[in-house]
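Lecture notes, structural biology module. Today: joint structure prediction for complexes of four components.
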Amino acid sequence: MILDSNKVAAHNDGLYTAHKNKLVFTASEIAETESIIKKLIDFQIAIPSWALGTGGTRFGRFPGGGEPRSLEEKIEDVGLLHALNNASGAISLHIPWDIPTDRNAIKALAAQHGLKFDAVNSNTFQDQADSAYSYKFGSLQNVNKSIRKQAVQHNIDVIQQGVELGSESLTVWLADGSCFPGQLNFRKAYENTLESLQEIYEALPSNWKLFLEYKCAEPNFYSTTVADWGQSYSYVKKLGEQAKTLVDLGHHLPNANIEQIVSLLLMEDKLGGFHFNDSKYGDDDLTAGALKPYQLFLIFNELVEGMDARGMNHATDLGWMIDASHNVKDPMEDLLQSVEAIMIAYAQALSVDRKALEIAQNENDVVKAQEILQNAFRTDVRALVAEARLRAGAALNPVALYRELGVRDALIGARGLKTVATGL
Amino acid sequence: MILDSNKVAAHNDGLYTAHKNKLVFTASEIAETESIIKKLIDFQIAIPSWALGTGGTRFGRFPGGGEPRSLEEKIEDVGLLHALNNASGAISLHIPWDIPTDRNAIKALAAQHGLKFDAVNSNTFQDQADSAYSYKFGSLQNVNKSIRKQAVQHNIDVIQQGVELGSESLTVWLADGSCFPGQLNFRKAYENTLESLQEIYEALPSNWKLFLEYKCAEPNFYSTTVADWGQSYSYVKKLGEQAKTLVDLGHHLPNANIEQIVSLLLMEDKLGGFHFNDSKYGDDDLTAGALKPYQLFLIFNELVEGMDARGMNHATDLGWMIDASHNVKDPMEDLLQSVEAIMIAYAQALSVDRKALEIAQNENDVVKAQEILQNAFRTDVRALVAEARLRAGAALNPVALYRELGVRDALIGARGLKTVATGL
Amino acid sequence: MILDSNKVAAHNDGLYTAHKNKLVFTASEIAETESIIKKLIDFQIAIPSWALGTGGTRFGRFPGGGEPRSLEEKIEDVGLLHALNNASGAISLHIPWDIPTDRNAIKALAAQHGLKFDAVNSNTFQDQADSAYSYKFGSLQNVNKSIRKQAVQHNIDVIQQGVELGSESLTVWLADGSCFPGQLNFRKAYENTLESLQEIYEALPSNWKLFLEYKCAEPNFYSTTVADWGQSYSYVKKLGEQAKTLVDLGHHLPNANIEQIVSLLLMEDKLGGFHFNDSKYGDDDLTAGALKPYQLFLIFNELVEGMDARGMNHATDLGWMIDASHNVKDPMEDLLQSVEAIMIAYAQALSVDRKALEIAQNENDVVKAQEILQNAFRTDVRALVAEARLRAGAALNPVALYRELGVRDALIGARGLKTVATGL
Amino acid sequence: MILDSNKVAAHNDGLYTAHKNKLVFTASEIAETESIIKKLIDFQIAIPSWALGTGGTRFGRFPGGGEPRSLEEKIEDVGLLHALNNASGAISLHIPWDIPTDRNAIKALAAQHGLKFDAVNSNTFQDQADSAYSYKFGSLQNVNKSIRKQAVQHNIDVIQQGVELGSESLTVWLADGSCFPGQLNFRKAYENTLESLQEIYEALPSNWKLFLEYKCAEPNFYSTTVADWGQSYSYVKKLGEQAKTLVDLGHHLPNANIEQIVSLLLMEDKLGGFHFNDSKYGDDDLTAGALKPYQLFLIFNELVEGMDARGMNHATDLGWMIDASHNVKDPMEDLLQSVEAIMIAYAQALSVDRKALEIAQNENDVVKAQEILQNAFRTDVRALVAEARLRAGAALNPVALYRELGVRDALIGARGLKTVATGL
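The predicted structure, tokenised, for the full assembly:
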């Protein structure tokens, strides 16, 4: 389904006056809105290939209808999202869930939708029907060298597929760990994992990055072999300059100060990118910004400050990806809400008065520092995000337009009510 | 120190044009702003008598200067806050820290500042020099009947003092609990506590409420005898209609859904009131709204919905109190920030489109329900809160005016740099 | 597969001398071991019908071999466990996963293995192929009356099936809740749930109990409609005397004091029973006692003290059930380990010197109270548990005998390597 | 107060027969008990100088009587503990709380009691009356260079004092951090702290170690500048070989897998030592092993395995210290209980069948691995710990002898009922 640009224009026309008024007022409240809008236009958040279908939990899954039945349809769906919000211009493949059969056709299709191929993901947490070995007791950490070899080779294969699509990074998230005390020797699990990662790292093209994601628990419930930022950091330091830590917002123990972790990883030149989502209890994979929008802002506050301090390009020097599971919402609407929340947090962070904040910090003026951050957060920046979309030809209100156009019904009509997206 | 109303007016004049523009714009975004502003004017949040001094932790305390040296000076400080924000029109005494010596003079002083006496608090977590018995192993729960009697009598004395000041509620927060398994018999501790509470309840005037606060931990680190909302609920159900549960936002286990608790207590007619603060790790007693402003909004969202469903008066039918500790900020500025955050959350909750939300809920339109709540939260309502202050003769920007007037320096001049506020 | 009693005897003969020595020594350390052994013989822990197969997480499932393919085979497996440990003499059916087709045959089969039918479980967290309505947005809480009716009827059907099998209790665990703020009205969800529960309660035979289980999160990640013990308590108080709260050890927020909850529910005559498992992060469903054996002991310490205070029968007055998921272990071995850990905790609790503990508590002798509990926990009671098995004709070391007999290989031989147990 | 060795002997005589029987039985259960007993005799746990007095919380303090009034009396108290258990042969000074005035006399007194001076601790979380600058906003992290210099100099002074007493390590625990978002720039706080630590490190004698302790929160409640093991690790890697990470068991976020952290720090040669205590909610500083004895065992399991893998000396190559606060117990009894729990965990870890465990791990035999660890934990090793004391001339039951001798009453007689120990 291709979005008709006339319909976008009609939608925008209807909202234009109210938008313009709001934009003018916003510009009276925030300095340098033009600069902010330009950065918002450039900012793109990749959509994982599995996220177009309804997710589930171990207790079940309640699928919606019209879900994509193939990688082609997934690309079409991401293309539609990108047409609606001009902020989802990339797709992140999970392999072996989404292996292109005809790479040239896939690349052409993506290009047609203005999409790039972001990081490729090498899933080794499920067994495939044709695999020689099982990952029941881990992949890169496995006590069995043959199993480690199989997992290393899978990663190398994934890199190769990514190269052909134009990806430039590999995300390694490992389910490896243990469910019970005594199950594994932590040190040997670390050493096996490091050895495996080194073999993968050696296969990495020189312009690629390897993102090593950490997670405190699940699906292993006693230990995880890359369990926290410190463990990921200790691996990527040993691997080399192209290896970086990837932060998934839902992968921390309760009460963790994620923004501080982000700041320190940036300082160490070891931050690779993000998996955005929100959570209350564990790795809940809820819509980004749905529960802790202030935390999301504080994270972007560190990102903007830290990237600027290093002279980094906001749009391209880190990997930005959604990693949420869409259990009770239409996945497309959920993704639009996630992207919107991320753009708002980014816009708020861009509007922080950094000079005043630095002065307040140097004077230990805690009250003032809080006022500055909360002012940026409390100010309504949505008109800036909408304006960025407007200028790029996307919709002022993507969710509203998605509904006006009856996209889901059209997809159900085209694909059927009961479809099964590959992946989770 | 009495705030000069001319100086308030001058401050407001300087900010008026920008404020008015913002107010007009806000009124274009939110329906029925007049009704909201009126509710904001009526809404008052009590200040605890100990909160005017710098707090500390078990690791130390770093006092500021000019702290109040007497109950009279505390009332003056609250009076100043109220003059600045017209939202702190009550003081909540902690006894035995703040026992009036001349009640009539104290009442007159409070009246002069437009202050009421909110809930009185019966501290039984410290020993007093003249006490016969120690609370080392608890007060109302104590295995020693004589100690329980002492604690019960203290509560009854506190009620009597409250009666004479015009208070109409008693807040009972118990440090009672245990630090080690086996230390106490949970059932007997409950039964002792219930018996003690019943004796206190019998001494309660018929127009009073008894608020029973719960807390998961600290200062006891294994068990607390009123540890969660369910335990408080089970006590207050047995006590009678005048007994209610008090919710302190910092007293929950990690990840608790406080807004759901609030909704259910309201449903059961067992919600008494609030102690506002914010926290990240435990009972951190940080400035309200400093870390989780969306949670604060969601709580007010339940309060507005639930109180309206029961036909309750927002301003008077529940107890609203700050309970934060001001360790690294000027306590007065901290209190102004807390009150501001609470008023903003209340205003946001008042602006929720409840009819649309109810429809979305009835249709299981989760995306829409989120849009409605987040729209209310993302919309900048600060002009409404400021307008409420303006109409009541208070300051458009209380913290700014507090600083312009050099209040802290004046207090240091009057009271000295090294003073010690009674209480924590 | 039926356990050959000669093989049990041969196994026991080989271990007898060492066992006897240990038993004699244990009897020199613990008072009244005979009384303890008798209680251990009587104590039975029900096995859920789904637990004989390998569990999984949302990330995948790694099945073992020889899993039961039918309810009949599940009963055989539980029968085998019971023959090995004489402590698993009941099975708890999850419906609609395990609906008997020929009830008389099933009852005869169970009787042949010495098994009773414990609580029946009414799963409403998955959609069935033939269902008119979906539980995507909840069952008993649903805003749609027809969906609530379907779920109520399912519960009533489950009761009916239980009646015919000889069960005497219904366990209601609800996945109902919400994933996002605004998704549901907490009060109305409560009221709908209460109304539904009342309809189910009315269908309850007079000799039955209704167990209402609570859970803080999962599969809903913002709110759960029966989220904590206080919420369950408030429902069961309204329902009537036959309604009780069921405690699953993994369903609490981090750091919750479960033993205190147990004590208070017993005090209120509202404790119904247990789902045993262990966990570190969330509802991890690990082998009971695998991570926090001291907590398990402390819970049994409260159970023994509280049940004795009420004159309750340990073996029959509460429901004792395993509720763990066997992801990386042979499910049969895992269940044997869980039951062993529970029996040890029970034996330790029975050996606590209660008179001395009461004296220590009355004297606030915290050090002594800890010494008493830790002495009971540190003393090795395994010989008592083994002796209870020996006297009942079961194995001194069930896991060892299970392995000696090559049970899993035999099951694989009989059932095949790739089988799928119904249920999770 | 000096323990009369005749009284120890008399105490031991009374318990000897029962002890011997138990020891013989234990030796029938555990291999190589002689080797274990020898290691237990050598194992010493340092007592912090502040721990002889009753601790408190921010809510108050309930002192006992007879508390030491001087460093001399503290040394005497530790000497008494060591005479009772032969496992507390070191004292760890907190400075400026406990600065020796006459070093030679203090060294002689310690030597008389058989005590060494363990790590010295440089407290910079409180202001001293004679300090030029305040640590309200941090010490080594402070934005003010002069304040950092003061804190660095204090650390260097502490090293100097330690050198003269014979200490060989400095423990740096920093309260530094922030209470509110925006209060500090995380990167600059890190850089300031690193620079300060480097200056301290340069002053370190070549035979010394610098232990950098981490803590997730408290007394700062938004961020801590050395917040987790990863942050400590990143500092000590930059500092050099003599810098190591110190693990305090209570300083982690909820549910952290501490034993894995311990294993990895050992692997990296960056583990320095331990502060032992137990906790349920936060940094509760309860008696070691009082709540999570299995966790304590699992930590020692990693320590024994990891130290042996590196050929380290258990007794001397890491720092072993108590760091608990004795709020509701006699501090001396509490310390005896902590040390006992630690020795038990160590003995259990020494008794693990490591060869069998390694085989089980290599076969992914999770059930077997759990059996091996739980067998070591469930076996009663207390006779080994007691035998180690007996052989070293200490008491078979230290707490019992402490009570038999009426030590506390004697101390109250000598020192008075109301004394104040320096420190917390």
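Point to remember: The first strand of chain B starts at residue 47 and ends at 48.
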